[in-house]
Amino acid sequence: MGTKPPTGLRYGAAALLTALALTGCTRSTPPPPAASTTPSPTPSSPAQVCTSLVAYWVKETLRGGKWAGLDWEQKGLSNEQYAIHEEAVAAGREEERTAGLDKALELVDRLVAQRCAAQNGATWSSENWRPVKSGP
């Protein structure tokens, strides 16, 4: 006949086996993501970013929005985008006087999209921008 292991060792082995059984049922890493059926969004072109940004601020100006009075830097506009902004605001105000706000907002969308596309996003930086100096 064999000898029985000490009681503490039996309980320790049982606890270890239980812990291994419980942790063996779970994954240590998350499962891979399921294949998505929707395509991932394509990055926006400079012209699309320009159109979205400038048209937003022009519409805020025409509507008299709370933040419409921010300067071009606070709005995140380049000098070229600001020039488009000012042109679109003037055209929008003229259109609003003759045809109403809704027509003015439609005009802004068209005008800004055309100008941003023609200038490939109008991302030329501000006049006071200087390239970083290299070397001492």
Summarize the structure in words.
- With 136 residues, the protein is mostly helical.
- Helix content is 55%, strand content 0%.
- It has 4 helices and no strands.
- It has helices spanning 7-24, 46-63, 79-99, 101-118.
- Helix 2 (46-63) packs across helix 3 (79-99) and helix 3 packs antiparallel against helix 4 (101-118).
- The longest helix is centred in the middle third of the chain and has 21 residues, at 79-99.
- It is elongated, with a radius of gyration of 32 Å.
- The termini are far apart.
- The mean pLDDT is 79.
Brief sketch in words of this structure:
This protein has 136 residues and is mainly alpha-helical.
Summarize this structure as a short list of keywords or feature phrases.
136 residues, mainly alpha, 4 helices, 0% strand
Beta-strand portion reads under 5%
Helix content: 55-70%
Structural class: mainly alpha
Report mean pLDDT, rounded to a whole number. 79
How far apart the termini lie comes to 88 Å
Secondary-structure element order, N to C: HHHH
Q: Main β-sheet, in a few words?
A: none
The oligomeric state of the chains shown is single chain
Count of individual helical segments? 4
Counted beta strands: 0
Pick out the low-confidence regions: none
General form: elongated
Radius of gyration, Cα only, in angstroms? Answer: 32 Å
